[in-house]
Amino acid sequence: MTTPAGTTAGVRRGRRLxxxxxxxxxxxxACADAGGSGGVPxxxxxxxxxxxxxxxxxxxxxxxxPLRPGLQWTRQGTTEVGERVVPHQVVSTxxxxxxxxxxxxxxxxxxxxxxxxxxxxxxxxxxxLDRDGNVWLLGSYTEDYSGGxxxxxxxxxxxxxxxxxxGILMPGDVGADTPAWFIGREPDGxxxxxxxxxxxxxxxxxxxxxxxxxxxxxxEVGALDNEFKYYAAEVGQIxxxxxxxxxxxxxxxxxxxxxxxxAGLDExxxxxxxxxxxxRETVPEVFGAAPPSSRVP
Length: 297
Fold this sequence. Notes:
By secondary structure, this protein is mainly beta. The chain has one domain (4-289). It has two helices and 17 strands. It has helices spanning 262-282, 284-288; strands at 21-23, 45-47, 54-55, 71-81, 84-101, 104-115, 118-130, 135-146, 149-158, 165-170, 181-185, 191-204, 209-220, 223-232, 236-242, 251-259, 294-295. A twelve-stranded antiparallel beta barrel has the order 4-5-6-7-8-10-11-12-13-14-15-16. Strands 1-2 form a two-stranded antiparallel ribbon.
């Protein structure tokens, strides 16, 4: 399975996050820093999940990770397939599909991944928004493809079922002194975390240049140095830079950001509903008894 941090959705204070802050005794391996942020933290903070703290995610109050339905990001670059480096593209769309996960409202983002022009993966990530503006990763579903045909389901979880644990993907208030934070844990036990590398950075990509860029390091607990993700304020993720523990060395840069027409949004949201219908067949233990999704009126 992919880890929550490894989704293409992408991520991730000098302030209190909603709920009780718990200093977690999960130690990260003492990995030497390969340059950038002065080392891997010895511990990170985890925020208690409480569904009463969650609000309508479509209000989109997080400036680093917009949740507004209709936004679509296209990032291009390269990835490794076996020993080959091939062209890679990710099209991420914030749909208007919402569902309840463990009592909290969540909105679905659709990712379409192509390698060398061929569709290889389709995934849905479910994001919640709490009253402090923190964006939570509350679940995901991923299908793998070969030759345009479905091959298997490589990732499926919703909330705290089957031993999974939701966490914060992107805090609502991020600063240079923000402690490292817990992103989530999958049913198979893989846990992910993140830390701030840099704030206020200037960064140019093909689409535009940005003055207020946040750089976040993500990875699995024990191997945090997986990738650097760059976020522009009010835009979202503009760049992904692979690090030491990156499995596929995905290098992605924003080439387009658009707001879909009603027809375009309808197409993407309908695709999410189709995927969820398929998920009830492929992973009934996860989606079979889950409350159905609906589209925002």
